[in-house]
Design brief:
Blueprint (H helix, E strand, L loop, with lengths): L2 E4 L10 E7 L9 E6 L2 H12 L9 E6 L10 E3 L2 E3 L11 H6 L4 E14 L15 E20 L4 E7 L25 H21 L5 H11 L2 H12 L3 H9 L3 H32 L2 H19 L4 H18 L3 H15 L6 H14 L15 H14 L4 H16 L7 E5 L6 H12 L3 E5 L6 H5 L12 H9 L5 E5 L12 H9 L7 E2 L6 E2 L5 E6 L7 H5 L1 E5 L5 H19 L23 H10 L7 H26 L13 H4 L16 H8 L10 H5 L6 E8 L2 E13 L4 E4 L4 H12 L13 H7 L6 E6 L13 H13 L7 E3 L2 E2 L5 E2 L4 H10 L4 E5 L3 H7 L2 H6 L1 E5 L2 H8 L16
Parallel strand pairs: 2-4, 10-15, 10-16, 11-12, 12-15, 17-21, 19-20, 21-24, 24-25
Antiparallel strand pairs: 1-7, 2-9, 3-8, 4-7, 5-6, 7-8, 8-9, 13-14, 17-18, 18-20, 22-23
The chain binds adenosine-5'-triphosphate.
Length: 917
């Protein structure tokens, strides 16, 4: 603003002519103020005229503000910031005063000019080159003082001037002289009817202002104004403050009778009060009910609606998303009952905000339902065709070496499935030591059945919720492993392997085995209800298989539901064959040691970049692994591959750089070579020699020459070779017995389970006479009678204390060790034994004979004493090479064992030799 002038003087009455400011779309009421920014030529001329007057007469301080009729030409009226006005020049130049008058209303407001400020035209650039006299503006602050009737226009240029007739009193200013009385309209403050109406109006207005007080700061000011204003001003004051609509204001402006005005204002204030009361009540109620999240939701919805209105379309995004989810849900085609529940949840979701805690939970649940294979099945529902039985066998043979009996059993299983496709197949459980191919056999079955394969690992599962899921109310709850597996596999009829079923435990968090019972029970599993899902899923189309290392630890009821198939451990020869045919190619491929295709060196695809000859594998089998399966062997071969990889990778680099000299061209530089120099065969291909095996794997881990007990046990009474079965397969184990100072007790050491401890007690109490009634000479009575137990105890130790041992099959070995101890005769060094012993000296059959005999064979044992009833297993299970290498002696009683355990036989009556301490 370049200048500012304060114009201030009080007039006594309105002059008969007034300069007129036509105003479009807005109405200035008496008793209210208005700011106008004037930019049109006529308005500028009007203000110029006021300012240019040498003597400012009181009458010139007024302008007449007259509303423009709605039907005036649209071009009429120049809009400026914060104000709109009619530009008199915008009327057709030909129009005479009467035409211009016709566009204006009959009643206007005489306004006192409170302030005039000069400025640039809004939107003008400060340094405009083409300045025009109109590139400027005036800002007027006007105060409405009284109504006037607009008569003829006396001039239309350069601005409008009109003859006017004052309608209201001019003497009171609502802003300065609130207590004044208006006179000239013939109304007095004590006019009875107006006074009553004013009182009632004030009461309502007060109540209204109270209701609005907390929203509008101005309401408080208005309240005091209403209290003090004379009755005939009340209506104007109120409408100016509360009514924004042009029509309502125009109506009041046009109502010249003060009583009529008051009547209208009274109706208005009552209506406003009613609306405000209802509004306040509703708001109160709604606010009471709305939680913070709901309020957020409401606001978000409004925001979404606004965005939609603006065409930003983001509001539709979430809806689209939920629509997609619904489509996915319908696509999954769950049973009607499940669909109904899911749809209900979806409806709930639509009413929630994304920030609500329940939103994620509900959405996660619906997504899980939508991604489960409720009706999707594997592409081929194979009931193995007659011709494909041979194919099935071929697949099994191709992927697994040996295991003929296991494969036979699998083929039988497949054949029954073909003949009775509708029957529920038995659940096969492959039991055996680790790394013997149980998992891969299950995979082969899936391949034969052409079904997707899914492995569910149950090792270490202690919580029922792992199987059956957590209820949705838990934080971070999710479905159990079964449902998760189904979600991953994507069909409802996969082959599902329950791996390591025996490693499932149970604790305070429930019994997962019980849940597993339901999964495997054909009577129940068609409606398996996961806690998280809360709706049943039909598991009956799944082909379940299971694996276990030690089936004894599978709970009885679960074991009864399955058919156990033993996958025995391998002999060294079998391991060698498996390694050469399956494991070596596999590890070479995994380490990038097969040529991918024709390369610069002209190698064919899949020719190895590393050769691992049979003697190297054999060395690994014999000296670096002691296991029933081939997992440790595989790990050793992988170590060898890694050691060679550096050299081969370097060779590749060199070949790429064009400096290679065939395969055997360049050796890695010293920095890369590490500690191993990789030898090459005659054709230049790197080769794993036995020396390299020793260099990479270190000293032999299982060198039998280091075993002192094995070397010397033939000389020591009380030390006997037993054959045991552990989770890693068969093993040869020396049991040592000695007499120690003590109180006549039996002491056992070597990480033993309960069953083996019982066997030791039985061995102690065993009737030395082989169960004959006439002899009561048990070992214990013998020891006591001989005075050997006086002040002494027997100590039996099973070496390799780090390995847990349990089971009854050490019974005969412990008896023999005690007899050897007390008879002071060493047992035969070439003989090992296994068998459970009864209290009366009978030798009972045991498990794991195949692994035990293999272990005996591998450890250079020549004779084995086994329970007579296990002979049949030997014929079925034990490889011919092992059978032929061993002298197998069946035993019925302990007498038979002792007869064969000592050089030159053994007579049953216990000798009274002192045992060596
Ligand atoms: N008879 C076999 N023929 C070919 N490969 C075999 C044979 N037995 C085992 N393997 C190989 O040994 C590896 C280990 O087998 P797998 O994982 O199936 O053992 P597992 O018995 O399931 O062991 P775990 O009890 O620890 O799960 C696999 O790579 C598999 O190919």
């Amino acid at each position: 603003m370049s200048s500012r002038e304060q114009v201030d003087a009080e007039p006594r009455g309105l002059p008969s002519t007034l300069s007129i400011l036509p105003l479009k779309d807005r109405i200035l009421l008496p008793s209210s103020a208005m700011k106008l920014v004037l930019t049109t030529p006529s308005a500028l001329a009007l203000v110029d005229d006021i300012l240019g007057a040498a003597y400012v007469k009181p009458g010139t301080l007024y302008v007449g503000v007259v509303p423009v009729r709605r039907d005036a030409p649209p071009s009429a009226g120049g809009v400026t910031s914060g104000a709109s006005q009619l530009d008199a020049e915008s009327f057709d130049a030909e129009d005479d005063a009467d035409d211009v008058r016709a566009h204006l209303h009959d009643v206007g407001t005489a306004a006192r000019i409170i302030q005039i400020a000069r400025g640039d035209r809004p939107g003008m650039k400060a340094r405009s080159i083409h300045w025009s006299p109109y590139d400027r503006s005036y800002t007027l602050l006007l105060e409405g003082r009284c109504r006037f009737e607009l008569n003829q226009l006396s001039s239309t240029s350069p601005f409008l001037v009109a003859h006017v007739r004052q309608l209201d009193s001019l003497s009171t200013s609502p802003f300065r002289d609130l207590g004044g009385n208006g006179r000239d309209d013939g109304v007095t403050a004590d006019d009875g009817e107006l006074g009553d109406m004013a009182a009632s109006f004030k009461e309502n207005a007060r109540a209204l202002v109270d209701k609005l007080e907390h929203r509008k700061g101005a309401a408080r000011r208005l309240k005091s104004m209403l209290e003090q204003a004379p009755p005939h001003r009340l209506a104007d004051l109120f409408v100016a403050a509360f009514e924004d609509s042009f029509d309502a204001r125009l109506e009041l402006l046009s109502t010249t009778c003060p009583k009529e005005r008051m009547r209208r204002a009274l109706a208005l204030v009552e209506a406003q009060l009613h609306a405000a009361t209802v509004n306040a009540d509703v708001t109160k109620k709604v606010e009471g009910r709305l939680t913070k999240t709901q309020r957020e939701y409401l606001l978000r919805q409004q925001m979404a609606a606004i965005r939609e209105e603006l065409g930003e379309g983001e509001g539709a995004g979430e809806e689209d998303d939920l629509e997609k989810l619904r489509a996915k849900l319908l696509d999954a085609a769950p049973p009607a009952e499940v669909l109904k529940t899911a749809e209900a949840e979806l409806r709930k979701l639509r009413k929630m905000t994304e920030q609500a805690p329940a939103y994620g939970v509900t959405r996660g649940w619906i997504e899980t339902v939508a991604s489960l294979p409720w009706s999707k099945e594997a592409a081929t529902d194979v009931t193995v065709e007659a011709s494909s039985m041979a194919d099935a066998r071929a697949v099994l043979d191709e992927e697994h070496y040996g295991l003929d009996r296991v494969k036979d059993r699998i083929i039988e299983y497949l054949a029954v499935r073909r003949l009775r496709p509708d029957a529920r197949p038995p659940i096969l459980c492959f039991q055996g030591p680790p790394g013997v191919g149980k998992t891969t056999l299950a995979r082969s079955i899936a391949k034969v059945l052409q079904r997707p394969f899914q492995r569910i690992s149950l090792g270490g599962v202690r919580d029922e919720a792992d199987v059956r899921g957590h209820r949705r109310t838990y934080i971070a709850s999710m479905p159990g492993r079964l449902i998760q597996g189904l979600k991953r596999v994507g069909v409802r009829d996969p082959v599902m392997l329950l791996d390591e079923l025996d490693k499932m435990g149970s604790d305070s968090r429930g019994d997962p085995a019980a849940a597993m019972l339901e999964v495997l029970d054909p009577e129940q599993n068609h409606a398996f209800t996961d806690h998280y899902m809360g709706v049943p899923f039909d598991l009956s189309r799944i082909t379940f298989l299971a694996t276990a290392n030690d089936p004894r630890t599978i709970p009885g009821p679960l074991r009864d539901r399955m058919e156990m198939i033993t996958v025995p451990g391998y002999t060294d020869e079998e391991k060698l064959a498996i390694a050469c045919r399956h494991v070596v190619p596999k590890v070479l491929e995994e380490h990038g040691l097969l040529h991918a295709g024709r390369e610069g060196n002209n190698r064919d695809a899949n020719t190895p970049r590393l050769r691992i000859p049979r003697d190297a594998v054999e060395l690994v089998v014999r000296s670096y692994t002691r296991e029933a399966g081939v997992r440790g062997l595989q790990r050793c071969l992988e170590s060898l591959c890694r050691a060679v990889a550096v050299s081969v990778a370097h060779e590749s680099d060199a070949a790429a750089a064009g400096s290679a000299n065939g395969d055997g061209g360049s050796s890695p530089p010293a920095a890369l070579q590490g500690t191993h120099v990789i030898p090459r065969g005659a054709d230049g291909v790197p080769e794993v020699t036995t020396e390299l095996v020793r260099a990479v794997l270190g000293p032999a881990r299982f060198d039998s020459n280091n075993d002192d007990l094995k070397d010397h046990h033939g000389d020591i009474p009380g030390v006997v070779a037993g054959l045991s079965w552990t989770a890693v397969g068969g093993d040869l184990m020396y049991i040592e017995a000695a007499v120690m100072p003590g109180g006549g007790t039996l002491q056992l050491t070597g990480q033993l389970g309960d069953v083996i401890k019982e066997s030791a007690l039985i061995a102690m109490s065993w009737h030395g006479a082989g169960g004959k009634a006439e002899s009561s000479a048990t070992i214990k009575t013998h020891l006591a009678g001989d005075g050997l137990l006086r002040g002494r105890s027997v100590h039996v130790h099973l070496p390799q204390g780090a390995i847990p041992k349990d089971g009854p099959s050490a019974g005969v070995t412990m008896c023999t060790a005690l007899v050897s101890l007390f008879s002071d005769r060493p047992a035969r060094s070439d003989t090992a034994m296994t068998g459970e012993v009864s209290l009366r000296g009978l030798v009972l059959p045991v498990g794991g004979v195949k692994e035990k005999l293999i272990a005996a064979h591998q450890n250079g044992i020549r004779r084995v004493l086994i329970p007579a009833r296990n002979v049949v297993d030997v014929e079925h299970e034990v490889p011919a090479a092992t059978r032929e290498a061993l002298e197998i002696v069946p035993c019925v009683t302990m007498a038979d064992v002792l007869e064969n355990a000592f050089e030159g036989g053994y007579r049953i009556d216990l000798p009274r030799h002192r045992a060596r301490m």
